[in-house]
Amino acid sequence: MAKHHVHTTINGDPIELLCDTSETLLDVLRNQLNMTGTKEGCSTGDCGACSVTVDGRLVCSCLMLGVEANGKQIGTIEGLATGDKLHPLQQKFLEHAALQCGVCTPGFLVASKALLEKNPDPTETEVRYWLAGNLCRCTGYDKIVRAVMDAAHEMRSA
Q1: How confident is the model at residue 158 (pLDDT cuts 50, 70, 90)?
Q2: How much is the pLDDT for 46?
Q3: pTM exceeding 0.70
Q4: Are residues 31 and 72 in the same domain?
Q5: Residue 70 burial by CB count (10 A; 0-12/13-18/19+): exposed, middle or buried?
Q6: In terms of residue numbers, what domain contains 53?
């Protein structure tokens, strides 16, 4: 199969790569770019573990082809922290013990960040609705919602 030259920006860094037309963005991130923070859960777009942002929109990277990233701005879990300084969402997930096995956590964090960029003062119902596409088999979701609400409050106060 022919490889296609893709120019994209991932977490603010320009990236050039060759990818097959059948490779998903998830496969490209994990296998070519060694960005393994984005997790594969279901490969059908049902669990949200592979959530990334594409030009500011929340997307399941298992449903997007790598070649479709050409010319796009991609945001992944690796782009949340700034050096050793955690993003407020990451810090609040730790403080609220809003993670267990960690497979779903990157997707929840990316989705939560996308929500707070769109709506910095969400209600609990809005947080639950926004995160409905992210599934977790370990937690009861309450700690995740509390962590997002607390991060939103902290980010508004900063």
Answers
A1: confident
A2: 96
A3: yes
A4: yes
A5: middle
A6: 3-79
Whether 39 and 107 have beta carbons less than 8 Å apart is answered as: yes
Domain boundary among the residues 79, 96, 115 is at 79
Tokens for 5, please give them.
């030259």
Residue located via tokens 């929340």: 58
Evaluate the CA torsion angle 134, 140, 146, 147 in order and state its sign.
negative
Q: Cα separation of 13 and 124, whole Å?
A: 34
Q: How many domains does the chain have?
A: 2
Residue type, 65: L
Tokens for 87?
A: 């993003």
Q: Are 106 and 77 spatial neighbours (Cβ–Cβ below 8 Å)? A: yes
Give the Cα separation of 120 and 151 in Å (integer). Answer: 10
- Based on the number of CB atoms within 10 Å of its own CB, is 15 exposed (0-12), middle (13-18) or buried (19 or more)? middle
Taking only the tens place, the pLDDT of each residue in 94-112 is 999 999 999 999 999 999 9
CA distances from residue 13 to 16, 72, 115, 128, 148 in whole angstroms, order as listed: 10, 11, 23, 32, 27
Give the whole-angstrom CA distance, residue 13 versus residue 138: 34
| pLDDT > 90? residue 127 | yes
